[in-house]
Design a protein that fits this description.
Blueprint lengths: L1 H12 L1 H47 L8 H7 L2 H33 L1
Helix pairs in contact: 2-4
Length: 112
């Protein structure tokens, strides 16, 4: 135990080691922000894509050549709005969790 305390004092007295710890914490924060940004880009592409496919799908239902298939299309037409809602919920939950992690990393950085 006494060796651990002596080692801790040595780390806190060595400014270069403290600077290395601070840089590692800052890199971790920057990585977290990068991941959050990538997820925001992913969901901002996925949700409009689903909306576009759904709009095209509804346009196909009204085509005179496909009137016999319209009942089949209408049976699965609920899947697209449900997918939009589910994907949006997953995106919001993921963004919230990543934001909390970033705030924790900032708090650790401030402590360092």
């Amino acid at each position: 135990m006494s060796g651990d305390k002596a080692h801790d004092k040595h780390i806190f007295q060595d400014k270069d080691k403290l600077l290395d710890v601070w840089k590692d914490e800052r890199g971790s924060r920057d990585n977290g922000v990068g991941l959050m940004w990538e997820n925001m880009r992913f969901y901002s592409v996925l949700i409009p894509s689903i909306i576009t496919v759904y709009t095209l799908f509804l346009g196909l239902i009204n085509q005179p050549l496909l009137t016999g298939y319209a009942s089949g299309f209408l049976k699965v037409s609920w899947a697209f709005p449900s997918a939009i809602i589910v994907v949006s919920a997953f995106g919001i939950i993921d963004l919230y969790c990543r934001w909390n992690r970033i705030l924790e990393e900032i708090a650790h950085l401030r402590k360092a």
